Each structure stands twice: as C-alpha cells, then as structure tokens.
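Researcher: Here's my situation. A collaborator sent me these components and asked whether they could plausibly form a single complex. I don't have experimental data yet, so a predicted model of the whole assembly would be a useful starting point for our discussion.
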Amino acid sequence: MNFNYSEKTISLRKKLTAFFEENILPIEEEVSAFNYNPDNRWKRWPGMEDLKIKAKDAGLWNLFLPQNYGELSPGLTNLEYAPLAEIMGRVLWSSEVFNCNAPDTGNMEVLAKYGSPDQQKMWLTPLMNGDIRSAFLMTEPQVASSDATNIETSITRDGDDYIINGRKWWSSGGMDPHCKIAIVMGKTDPNAPRHQQQSMILVPMDTPGVKIIRPLSVFGFYDSPEGHAEIVLENVRVPKENLILGEGRGFEIAQGRLGPGRIHHCMRLIGMAQRSLELMSQRASERIAFGKTFKDFSSIRQEIAQSRCEIEQARLLTLSAADKMDKEGNKTSKDLIAMIKIVAPNMALNVIDRAMQIHGGKGVGPDTPLAHFFVAARMLRLADGPDEVHMYQLGKSVINTYAKNKI
Amino acid sequence: MNFNYSEKTISLRKKLTAFFEENILPIEEEVSAFNYNPDNRWKRWPGMEDLKIKAKDAGLWNLFLPQNYGELSPGLTNLEYAPLAEIMGRVLWSSEVFNCNAPDTGNMEVLAKYGSPDQQKMWLTPLMNGDIRSAFLMTEPQVASSDATNIETSITRDGDDYIINGRKWWSSGGMDPHCKIAIVMGKTDPNAPRHQQQSMILVPMDTPGVKIIRPLSVFGFYDSPEGHAEIVLENVRVPKENLILGEGRGFEIAQGRLGPGRIHHCMRLIGMAQRSLELMSQRASERIAFGKTFKDFSSIRQEIAQSRCEIEQARLLTLSAADKMDKEGNKTSKDLIAMIKIVAPNMALNVIDRAMQIHGGKGVGPDTPLAHFFVAARMLRLADGPDEVHMYQLGKSVINTYAKNKI
Amino acid sequence: MNFNYSEKTISLRKKLTAFFEENILPIEEEVSAFNYNPDNRWKRWPGMEDLKIKAKDAGLWNLFLPQNYGELSPGLTNLEYAPLAEIMGRVLWSSEVFNCNAPDTGNMEVLAKYGSPDQQKMWLTPLMNGDIRSAFLMTEPQVASSDATNIETSITRDGDDYIINGRKWWSSGGMDPHCKIAIVMGKTDPNAPRHQQQSMILVPMDTPGVKIIRPLSVFGFYDSPEGHAEIVLENVRVPKENLILGEGRGFEIAQGRLGPGRIHHCMRLIGMAQRSLELMSQRASERIAFGKTFKDFSSIRQEIAQSRCEIEQARLLTLSAADKMDKEGNKTSKDLIAMIKIVAPNMALNVIDRAMQIHGGKGVGPDTPLAHFFVAARMLRLADGPDEVHMYQLGKSVINTYAKNKI
Amino acid sequence: MNFNYSEKTISLRKKLTAFFEENILPIEEEVSAFNYNPDNRWKRWPGMEDLKIKAKDAGLWNLFLPQNYGELSPGLTNLEYAPLAEIMGRVLWSSEVFNCNAPDTGNMEVLAKYGSPDQQKMWLTPLMNGDIRSAFLMTEPQVASSDATNIETSITRDGDDYIINGRKWWSSGGMDPHCKIAIVMGKTDPNAPRHQQQSMILVPMDTPGVKIIRPLSVFGFYDSPEGHAEIVLENVRVPKENLILGEGRGFEIAQGRLGPGRIHHCMRLIGMAQRSLELMSQRASERIAFGKTFKDFSSIRQEIAQSRCEIEQARLLTLSAADKMDKEGNKTSKDLIAMIKIVAPNMALNVIDRAMQIHGGKGVGPDTPLAHFFVAARMLRLADGPDEVHMYQLGKSVINTYAKNKI
C-alpha cells in the first residue's frame, strides 16, 4: 500500500484544480439553476459542449479509463484516478465535463474490455469522444434486481437477430437527448445454470420498441438532463452482433464492470463529503446564536471533528481498494470493493446531514449543493445493490476466512 | 397520565378512518401526481374544495383547535386530537381537507388566543371556514432565527400605521393562491429588553411592498401548492390595529404558538412513520432475494422490530406531552414539548429511511410516499428551531433540576 | 392506558423513598465495599437480615407479586409495582431488602402459579418469608439456550424419582449461602413435539450430585454474594413430586415466568438510568475544564437532553406493557414485552455510558455505581434471550400484522 | 503515504507471530487465570521473567522505541512498529513480555528524549532492560485533568530539593511490585503563564511520603499485577536533579510523550478488535439457533461485515498517522493523532461489543478475552484525555483550516 501520488497524478490534480477554479466554480450556480428549472427539463445546459472541449484541450479527458487509448485517455491506474474523481465529486454535474460521468464510464469500460472491434468502433469511439451518451438497463421494477439472477427481461434469438422484451427502470442517463445507446442485461437462457442465464446486449435508443415510459424523481430531484428513466422494451429487435462477449456471459461482464465504477462513485462521495465539511466549517466560523459563534459550541466542533475522521478513513479505505485492484485485479479485491461500497455512501450521508443541519433551512434548500449531495449519496446506498447485499456477501467471506484459521 | 381514548376521540377516529378509506386513499396518487407536475405548480388540485365540504359535513373540521368555536370546531383537547393528527400524517396533503394544516393551525390559534375581536372577525373566521389560507413570516436568511432575538425585520410606528421592512424565507404556504394573510414577526423596539423587542403583526398578502422573491425547494420538492416562499417586505404599511396583542409581545405569542403546533407536527410524524412501517412490512412479506422472502432475513426483521419500538415510544411520549399540556398548560410542559420536538423527527427519519431501503429504488422514487415523508421529516428537524436548540435548553433545564436535588 | 398512580402506589412510593433515604442510601457505599472485597466473597453483608425485617415491618415486602398472599404481599398490579421497582433499581443490592430480587421473584411466581400445595408449602413459603434464596437453572454452555428447544439437560423418570444430568451456567444467585433450592429446566422427552420436550423440576441445592464448578465473573464483577454459578448436575435424584405442573410443561412455565420478570428488570434498568442521569447532571453542574463549567458545553447538554428523552420513552413503554399485562394477560402482551426487553437495556447502556464519560476516570472506577450499572445492563441484553432473539420474533409478528392489512 | 511493510517489519512480524504461537497463546488462559485470582493480587505471574528473556533473545525487545539504543532496541519507526503493536494487542498481558507495555514505554521515551545523562543511567537503562517498571502520575481526582492546566499537585523548590504535595489517581502500573520510579506532573509556578506552570519530576516509589491509598478497579477488573493506583504525595522530598528538562517544561514534555503512546494504544486496540472479529467469525460458523447456523443469519453477517469495515479503516488511519509522525514529527501530526485517539477506542468498543453479543453469556464472562478487551478499550476513551477533549481541539483546527480557504 503506497498511496503517495505519482508524478502524473500530482500534475493532473494541479491542472484539474485550476480548471475547477477557472471554469467550474464560477458557473456552478448558473448550471445548477438551469438544470433545476422545470422549463429546461431534459435540455442540456448550452455551454456544456464548449466546456468539454476546454477540458479535452487541457488533457483532462477520460481520466477514468485504466487502459491507454491513444490520445483519448491518459491511462491512469485506479489509484491515480481516485484523487481526481474526488475533486469532480465536489460539483455534481462536473464529471461530464471530463467525460468521466456514470453510467458512461462503466459502459465504456465494458466496451473496452469485452466489446468486439465493430462494437468498439460503433459505440466506444463516440463515447470516448464525448459525442454521445449512454444508458445501462439493469434494474427491473418487478424483482429484487440486486440479486441479478432475478432479472426477467428476455433476450431471445430469432434468426440473425435477438428480440428483447422487458421493463427496466432507474436507467440513469436515459432521458438525456444525447443518449444514443443502451447496454441491456437480460436472460438468453432461463434454463442454464444460475450464473449463465444472463447476457448483455447493445440496444440503440432509437430502435423500435424502446419506449421511455417516464422519468423517475429521486426524492424531488429529476437530475435533468440525464434523468432516471423507466423504459419498456417491447419486441425490440437488434442484430445478433450486438450481443457482448457471448450468450450467458452477462454475469461475468457485470462483475467486471462493477469494481472500478464503485471506486469512482466512492471517490466522488468523498469529494461531496469533503466539500460539505468545508462548507460547514465556514458556516460554523460565521454564524451566531445565543451569543456565541457556532464554532465555539462544543457540539458543533464534535460534528466537524467526527466528520473529518470519517472522511479520512473512507478516503484511505478507497485508496487501498484502488491500489489492490491495480495490483491484484478486481476479483481478488472483491472484499475491499464491497467494503467501500458499504462505507462511502453512509459516511457521506452522515457528513452531509450534519452540514445541512448546521446550515439550518438553507441546508435543505437550493442555495447550497448539500441537499442534492444528500440525495445522490442516498441513492448510492441502493445503486449497484443495496448495502445489505454487500454486507451479506462480505460477512460470509469474512466468516469463512476466520472460521478456517482458528485461534 | 391517562391515555385512554375519550368517547369523543373514539367516535372521531372511526369517522376519520372511514373518511380516509372512502375519500382520501382512493385518490392519493392522483392528487400527488397533480401536485408533483411542474405544469401545475402553485395551482390547487381542483377537487380540494369539494373534499373540504365533505369533511366539514362529516364533522371532521378544525379538529385541532382546543377551544370550542361553536359549530366550527369540536373543541378537542390536545390528547383527544393527537390520534386524529396521527391519521392525517399518513397522507401528506390530507390535513388541509380537515382544515388542520400548518401553518394555518398555528395562525388560527394565535388569532383565537391573542387576536382582537376585529382581527378575529377579519381573519380568524375565514381561516376557520377554510375560505383562505395564511403564512407565518418568522425565519430570516441572514440570521440564526432559532434564536428569535436575532430577528432583524423592523416594524416601525409611523402615525396610525406600522411600516415593515425585512427579508423572510421558509414562509410555508406563502405560494398558495389562497394565501391571503401573513403574521409577521419583527422588532418594534431594538432597544427594549431582549425578550420585549419583538412584535407580531398582520400583513395582508396583497399589501404593496410584499414581494414574493421565489419558491424554495426542499431537497428537490416544491410542495406545491403551498410552497415555501422567500419574501421581501419593503416599506410595507399596515394600520396600527394590525399589531397583535401589543408592542413587545411577539416573543410571548411565539411561545404560546409553538406548543400545540409541535404536538401536531409530532403526531403527523408518527403517522408517517407508522405508515412507513406498514409499507415496509408488506414489502418484506412479498419480495424475494437470494432464495428467501425478505421477511425471513433476520436483519430485516430487526429493522422492523426496531422501528416498531421507536414509533411506540415516540407515540407515548407525544401523548404524555399532550396530556400534560391539557392539564398544566404549555409553560409547565415546555420540557416535554422540547423532548417530542427532538425525538419525533429523528425517529421518523430512522423508520422512513429503513422503509426506503427495503423498497430499493422504488423507495426513493415517486411510487411510494416514503421519499416525501423523509423530506418532510428532515425539514421538521429544523422547523421551529433545530434539534440542537431544543437540546441546549432541555439539557440546561435537566441539569438545573438534578443539580439542586443532590443524591 | 391510564398510567396515573393508584392510591396504593402513591402511598408505597412515599414509604419506599423514605426507606431509601433513611436506610439504604446512608449505607450504600459500606455495603458495596463489603460486597466488592474479595475477602468477603460469597459472604452476605451482616446487616442484611435486620434491614429485611425493617422493610417487612414497613409493609415494603414482596411488592412484586401480583397476587395477594395474605399479609406476606400487598398484591400490587404490574403497573402499580413498576414505579417501585424503578426506585429499587437505583441501588443494585437493594431489591433483596424488599424480597424483590431476581431470580427469586420469578421462582416465587412459578411456584405461586404452578406449584402444588406441597411444593408451595415447602419452598414458596420460606422464599416469601425471605428465609432462603433460590436459583433458576436454565442456560447451558454447550447450546444457544435462548432457543429453549436446544436445552440438553436430561430429566429421566426412574421409579418414583427423576434423575437429572446436565451442565448449567449463569445460574444467578447460585453462590449465595442462603440459596437452598433450584428450579431446573431440562428434557423429559426428547422425542415429544418440539415445545413439549421440556419440564421444570425442583432440586434442593444440597442434593447429592449438584456440583458448583465455579463462579463466573461478568466483566470483572463477581456479584457476591449471589454470584453467577456454573453447576454440573450428575445423576441428581429427586422424588417425582418435585416436577412442576407435569412433564412437557416446561416451555409453558418458562413463558409464564418471563413476562413479569422482564417488567421488573426493565423498571430497575430505568431506575439505573435515571440515577445515572442525575449523577451526570450533578457532575455537569460542578466540573470545570477549559474555563467553562461542563454544563455550559453544548455537547454535554445534548447528552443529558438525549438521555432524558430516552429514559422517559422507555419508562412510558414499560408502563404501557405493565398495564397491558394487567388487563389482557401476558400472552396478548408478548409483543410489548419483547419491545421493552429490546429497548430498556440498550437505553440504559447509552445513558450510563454517557454518565461514565462525563465522570472521567471516576466513572469507570469504584466510586460511583455507574460501572456496575453498566455491567448489569449489559448482561440484561443477554439474560432471558439476547436482543436479537426478541427482535427476530417481534419483527415476524409485526410483519404478519401489517402484511395482512394492506394499505 | 507508503504503508508497505519494510523488510525489517516483515521479518519482525514473522518472528513475533511465531513467538505468539509458541510462547504466548498456549499459556494465555493460565496467565489470565493467575492474574484474575484475587489470591494473587499484586503478585507477578512467576513465568514472566523467563518469557522476557526469551523475547529479548529473539530480538523482540523494546520494539516501540523509535531511536536506536544499541543492542537494546531495533530502532523501528512508528510505521514499522505499528503492525507489531497490533499483534501484541491480541493478548492483553503480552506487551510486557517484549518490554512494550504502557506506561513504561511513554516513560522511557520521556527519559530518552528529555532525560539528563544521570537520569538516563539511573532509570532509563533498567527500564530498557526490563529490570524495573514505572508509573506516570498525572491525573488528579479533584480536577478535570484532561485540561492539564487544572493540575494542582505542587512541586516546590526547597534548597537543593523539591517538595511534592498532591493526590494522584489512575496511576497505572503503580501497584506492580516491580514499579520503582514515577514521573510526576505538578506545578512549580502557579503564577507563570498558563502553559509554563507545570513541570515533571522523577520520584522513586520508595521515597518517604509516597502513599499508595488503594488500587482502583475498572469496571470489576483490578488489572493485577500492574493495577491502577490512587497515590497521595505528602511532603515528598527529592533532589533538584530529579526535575526533567527544567521548570515549566512539563506541558512541553507531556505533548512530546503523547503522540507515540497514542499510536501504540490505537494499534493494540486494533489488535483487540481484530481478534474479536476472528472470535466472532468462528462462533458464527459453529453455533446454531432456530434451525440455522449463526453465519446464515443476515444480521450476524452484517455485524461481521461492519466490523471488518471499521477495523480496516481505523488501521489505515493509524498507519497514516504513524507515517506522518515519522516523516513530519509529532507536532505537525497532531490532528491525525487526535483522529486516531477518537476513532480507535470507539471502533474497538463497537466491534468487541458485537463479538460479546454473538457469544451470549460466554461473551461477558471469563472464558474469552472479550470482556476484558471491552473494559480496556472503554478506559482508553478516557485515558490521555476523553474523546470530547480531542474532538474539541480537532474541531477547532478543522474549522480554522477551512474557514480561511473559502470555497
């Protein structure tokens, strides 16, 4: 475990921080206000494409992708990327500026790792260029989708095509007008062994039968322009070449997709928590009640101290998971990945909640990023499987480890 | 402490439950969908007035008001009203149907207790009839308003008028097209002793100088049609008769207003939590993952058992506060009122959060009332003063009690 | 739910409080010091018998027993007894003074409810007189005894006798020189239906084959003179008349025994917590650090405020369970009894722990009752079944209730 | 932050683990039983000196001391020592075997850093040889000693001597028959500036006027043979050369002493927690209730998963503090040191408590190390200042940091 920043990271952090100060923070409120305005729902903030070009020009592009894809990505390790993702977490809409936003990142990884050359050319290239966006259609309303064997969408071979039927929801990004392609998880063979029933297939969003039913709100937020879509797939027909990796490989791809995505989410959560800590520290230094500045109340100091402790621990844990993934691969690191998935969202919720409370009414309203941070973090206790599923598996693994080595 | 239901309560509970089953639950989703639709923002659901007539006809009207106002209210005690408020808490928008919605209830109490006959005729009567709605302008963005001595809005005598200047926010109900009157808290004399600087004054919403700046979102919710308004008062001139009770009496009125309002909020929170418990129990009995129905996971049973324990304790505490208020008055009951104000929102947040988690993505989305419950409960950790203020005062009171009686 | 004190309770509370002030508190430290001194281990404090006579003379005797046994008990309801048990909880060794100490109370109830006239004459009378003490041999080291069907001790009929073999531990009171009789739970028929395998039988402590292996410490405490014994039963032979109620009735007796015992434990826990709150309030009013008296630190006020809230809620819940037991019986009240069993020990641990912390080193040492309170409360998260077992059953019951009544 | 083990650490860990397996674990219960037996109170387990020789021969001696003292210590960095201290934490009495036990470690550091050559020859050498033990007399019963400026013991110059008067308690190690020397904190000049009033002075335990009043129990444990002593210093006269560093330097020495000591304590706490996790995993894999092995209850898996997460985070945080101390010194690292002081004991208490609960009655009794671990960890929430003091200072520091750098 060597968490010292590499030269590359040091240089990119400096650049990224400067970019934030120059190009992101000054317009933070303007972009948020645009996105929150119901009149703009599912419209993209007009300045986004220019900002993306600036970021690309600054070499702050596709930072997430561990492989080097020529000039399109710097090929950072997870450990190198982690502190950069933390910075992006400080402003919710900023990841897209650097082409580092979910679910595109995960989808790009899937295509980079498992896609055929044709699939890569067709979809990976424009995604890496930031020309289009994508969705990942996994969760279904009718079943507990965190147990992926429950998933019911059918992918049925018909001549040279597959026909897809099912209902998906919480398809993040699905409302974005730039969203052109979806990766869909479904069953090609319900009679195969439990972990070989599922496959993943590429479905262009404009394929007939793809019906966006409605956007889902999270608490009251719609997260425009990406949104979270409920989508019905009704006799959706795509060529057989759209299948990724092969029939029955869906579970395997899902596993491969999740590790890095979790690191990214967790680092962004740490960024949210860190910024919340800073905001509450500033509030504490200014606000007065009952004749004392907030910072002189011991209870407020305790909350800030606790938050500092929790953030730093989660940060170290995430770095250690990133490091292990880099060195030993995702599979060996699965316990550590489960650990950060359990720890980071709950840590962030605790910290953000304290920050909201110290801000009073302002904290739950639109004038700070806190309420939206909270909702984003709350959702991440569910996305990619609720805490409980990860604890269920981690607990089993820990018990097995120590039950064998009696002391 | 005798918490047995009175005959009156038993009969009203039966009626209210029947009313819910017949008139509220069947249209719950329709009304919510109307209110959430941005196209309807600040419009009232068209069926509301008819529903109110039905409720009035059923004798389910103004249940909250402890005094008897002829046929307009049944004159329940706090203890009698509490279980009815709990039922109303089960559906967020339902209180208005029975003319029992905040902040109107508190405003009516202020007018009933402290209003002059003219003030009562002008504003209390139409409020009790449900013909208009009202706002309470207390909190200010610039100061920690939970320490009411901080409030800066000025109320200056000028001949036979008062002139009001200041900025208020979180004025709940202020966006409602039916909102016709506001009670404004401000300083008539900044040089008076600390608790005699403040006064309350009636300001019709259409008075020149009353400017609604914007609606505030809570997390992402706008709570249409009531909303939470930011309002600037700029040289707002009202006749001197609009002052309530007298100059320097604002603090005294605020104190008198808060007790019952807290009981109402707390009972509604218990209703939200109770419904969340029921929803999660039903979910647990149906959903399957990893080969087991949720109800057979010990961790899920624990969450449901914990929730049941927490709800019942908060319910008993609230009943005991209501009972004490009825028998000994608000002032003697201040510690107990502080206790439920601390306990109920946090209890509700815990229970609702568990219910959301058990519902997975559905729990944070628009298809259950859970996310909105959560936000409502979260706000009530701040409304009428954050937890911390109540703990600060309660802690002091407890220490003083026991420091004197050494053991 | 009418929690008002009855005349009887008011009068007894007054008497009991006076007795504490006169006879218990002045010697509290002396008795504790005697009991903690290893030289006195398993010796009874010499003044105890005199104190018991005083209490008996004052009519403060066998207050716990819901039936009236002539002059030996006042026949209080659970609701009437609860506030008296709370007072006794304030001094750990005081219950015995009033013949209200576990496990004798539970054993007396078993004999009173289920004992034959001969069994009652032989054992109930001297127990009610306070002439002897008793033990309850239930828990076994080899199995999870909270699932009573696991219990392995055998009770085998042999002519006119039963022969008992097994190993029991955590037999509280088993080290006391006055302990003369044990009620033993064991299997008379391992092949009977699951809940009819167990029986209870009376075993005089001086029966050959009853071997006290060792006293168990709880954390570092030995709880002399009662202690917690590990006991081996080796071919212990008693006459068949010692069986209580009949073969296979053990489970039924256990159920009947537990309800009131839990109320008693919980009320004592509330007494411990209440006293801890008072001690920490006094400490907070006196101690100074960093230029401030503890009571002026908002964090300390918060802890005291929280404690007050938690105690009062647990108190109300326990009273409501007592009330329901009185009116509807133990069986109908089982959910409420489970709830207080879950709530009270954890509440007490939280409160006591905060009190210890505010006391600094003094709080974990021998100069306050806090550390011993903590250990007693910690043990009560396990005694009569760990929290988890009660949550497991309560959770199931709640789910079943609400799953049926869909909303 | 490079937490990879150095060659030295890897080799020492291997040796230390082997030593544990060969020499510590096989006699763990024997030594504990000896120490718990009241007949042996304040006697040292007879095999200890032989074990110490073995450890010294194995090169496992004075591992804690960051400086190299010739053959007496290997001169490890804090980061190198941390994983070794973790192993020692697994058996409470084992640190002494390696001459790594508090408070001797801290005292040796003080003498090594600040002692005069004569003081070092007289006391450091025998301490490093393990020939004697020592005490540290800081805490006083009458004042909140965590605010060191409160300390009242007087150290008054009288000719060539100092005369010391005061009352100290919680002097760990003070009961040990090998304890020969104490470092005493007291005031040489009550009128000096606040942080220059205090000095530290060496007081041989056999100096006239040093009166051991009593041993203090922690919960019920006496921690024989070291114990925690209450000591009165009555006109204790020592030569002026016994003063360490100079008058008014006490605070400075205290600061220098605390950093490494906290790392040691925290690493041992992590060892306790880790072992508790292993014990509970084993228990979970074996015990059966309600027809299921504990490991198949989701709630038990959750507790184990949570524990794993908490331990790993605290471990990383402690390593990062050790690393920073090595590289940047104690002063710059004070926030991180405060953080581990806050985090580690609470983490350990949570984990140990869960482990106790899973063990049922066995968990709070004498048959596992858990109850003693719990008490040791509980005490460490108070030793060297309660959590609250560290949060008070850390909170202030964090607020100051971020209040300046506005975002």
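Model: Some features of this prediction you could bring to your collaborator: The radius of gyration of chain A is 21 Å. The mean pLDDT of chain A is 94.
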